[in-house]
């Protein structure tokens, strides 16, 4: 039986919209443990990492070399502790399921998952998350985690952020539809594979997800799945801080997660950017629990 360890990371350092720090609680309240148990997995909830409130910290406390990025010291501290928790979970033979918080938690998830193994990553997201402290228009680190993990530009050599055993050629975006100009150029110039919503429209979710898993899993020990709820259309996932129209449907999302489970390559996973303050009757958190369960094997029949 698959063992899943839940690790909550109630951060909102990475973005301006307060409330995403309550995401782990909202997802648990929506029945995550029950949904995972229905998928036939053994569930252990490790609780939340202690995270100081953003309101108690100074987002502008940084040096000139840190560019425009906010809360970098706080993000470093959380990332270090999360990387240790993820690595320990994998070493114990379980699969870590990280609950954000904002998407900056992916820095720690990826570093921990790739500590002792070569990993790929499938990035289900509307956004590229490939900005740097000097290119980011907002300074919000939730738009930078993939660039940080891959050591892109000024993230190169930042030990607490880089995941050295994650390589660009094993990173695949699925469902992109909102990129900054600098991100667009950087992604085009990289060895990553990027499938936009137009690709899903043209090829279908089946073909795109199959291709994504194949590329991410080629020659590695396992695959990290990063699921940002703004990947879905805001009509069905309203409780996110950066909604973008034209996302995937309910069934497309479930199929993608079902295919992740069937591929048997899942090494670690995170579910991020659920903001109950912006949600309607906790429906985005409920959707997050359903999709996580699908990724761990829950089926209709």
Automatic annotation (TrEMBL):
Annotated Basic and acidic residues bias: 53-63
Pfam families with a match to the protein in the record: Arginase
Binding residues for Mn(2+): 103, 125, 127, 129, 228, 230
EC number: 3.5.3.1
Keyword Hydrolase: yes
Entry's family note: Belongs to the arginase family.
Name listed for the protein in its UniProt record: Arginase
BP terms from Gene Ontology: arginine metabolic process; urea cycle
InterPro entries named among the record's database cross-references: Arginase, Ureohydrolase, Ureohydrolase_dom_sf, Ureohydrolase_Mn_BS
Lineage: Archaea, Methanobacteriati, Methanobacteriota, Stenosarchaea group, Halobacteria
Catalytic reaction annotation: L-arginine + H2O = urea + L-ornithine
Needed co-factor(s): Mn(2+)
Keyword Secreted: no
GO terms of molecular function: arginase activity; manganese ion binding
GO CC term (a single one): cytoplasm
Encoding gene, per UniProt annotation: rocF
Keywords: Arginine metabolism, Hydrolase, Manganese, Metal-binding
Positions of region (Disordered): 47-67
Cofactor-binding details, from the entry: Binds 2 manganese ions per subunit.
Major enzyme class: hydrolase
Pathway: Nitrogen metabolism; urea cycle; L-ornithine and urea from L-arginine: step 1/1
